[in-house]
């Protein structure tokens, strides 16, 4: 079945409950009369409640209605927050510089409102020292505690140890803040661009 409502000549009932262009109740009228009114107003007769007895129809500009509905749906999708799980892999004996780099990525992900799955990969004899991985995960959790929390405690999974960090900030908040920061940067660039010609004129 089509999700689209029936309009104009596709409506096949003897009478309808008619709603006017401004939402006013016209009452129950024969279908022919409703179609005649639609022509007078240069609008479409749209069936909005097919299961009612008689069906409810409204006079509207159906093309405009469809366009506005599509735009609203698009805006809703754009603002919808999709929580993403990012993954970061570490070795138990990671050197300080690599640790700082990886921690930087985790910080960025949490600021964006994403969860982060941290995986410690053990190789060879390292598998007999799980405490090394546990301590590393605890250290990382403490280093980023202002931005995130331990959502899933460290647990051994074969040759890996896994921990999941969740962001304190919701994805929607992070997206809104990112948009505001972007707008502020754009405004600042415009101000700098406007200031430059003024300085050139002053020098001249």
Summarize the structure.
This protein is of the alpha/beta class and 204 residues long. It has helices at residues 31-41, 62-79, 96-111, 130-143, 171-203; strands at residues 15-19, 25-30, 44-49, 56-60, 85-90, 115-121, 148-157, 160-167.
How would you characterize the overall build of this protein?
With 204 residues, the protein is an alpha/beta fold. It has five helices and eight strands, in the order ββαββαβαβαββα. It has helices at residues 31-41, 62-79, 96-111, 130-143, 171-203, and strands at 15-19, 25-30, 44-49, 56-60, 85-90, 115-121, 148-157, 160-167. The strands form two sheets. The chain has a four-stranded mixed sheet. A hairpin with a 5-residue loop joins β1 (15-19) and β2 (25-30). The chain is elongated. The termini are far apart. The model has no long low-confidence stretch (mean pLDDT 87). Belongs to the IF-3 family. Pfam families: IF3_C, IF3_N. This is Translation initiation factor IF-3. It is found in: Cytoplasm. Residues 172-189 have a biased composition (Basic and acidic residues).
Q: What's the layout of helices and strands?
A:
Layout: E1 15-19, E2 25-30, H1 31-41, E3 44-49, E4 56-60, H2 62-79, E5 85-90, H3 96-111, E6 115-121, H4 130-143, E7 148-157, E8 160-167, H5 171-203
Parallel strand pairs: 1-4, 5-6
Antiparallel strand pairs: 1-2, 3-4, 6-8, 7-8
């Amino acid at each position: 079945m089509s999700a689209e409502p029936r309009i104009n000549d596709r409506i096949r009932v003897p009478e309808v409950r008619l709603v006017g262009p401004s939402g006013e109740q016209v009452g129950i009228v024969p279908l022919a009369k409703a179609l005649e009114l639609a022509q007078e107003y240069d609008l479409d007769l749209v069936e909005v409640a097919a299961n009612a007895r008689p069906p409810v129809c409204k006079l509207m500009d159906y093309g405009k209605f469809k366009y506005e509905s599509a735009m609203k749906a698009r805006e809703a999708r754009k603002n919808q927050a999709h929580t993403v799980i990012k993954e970061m892999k570490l070795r138990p004996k990671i050197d300080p510089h690599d640790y700082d780099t990886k921690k930087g990525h985790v910080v960025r992900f949490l600021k964006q409102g994403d969860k982060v799955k941290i995986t410690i990969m053990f190789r060879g004899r390292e598998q007999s020292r799980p405490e090394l991985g546990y301590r590393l995960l605890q250290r990382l959790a403490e280093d980023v505690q202002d931005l995130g929390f331990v959502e899933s405690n460290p647990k051994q999974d074969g040759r890996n140890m896994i921990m999941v960090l969740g962001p304190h900030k919701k994805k929607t908040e992070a997206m809104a803040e990112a948009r505001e920061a972007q707008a502020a940067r754009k405004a600042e660039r415009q101000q700098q661009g406007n200031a430059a010609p003024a300085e050139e004129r002053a020098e001249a």
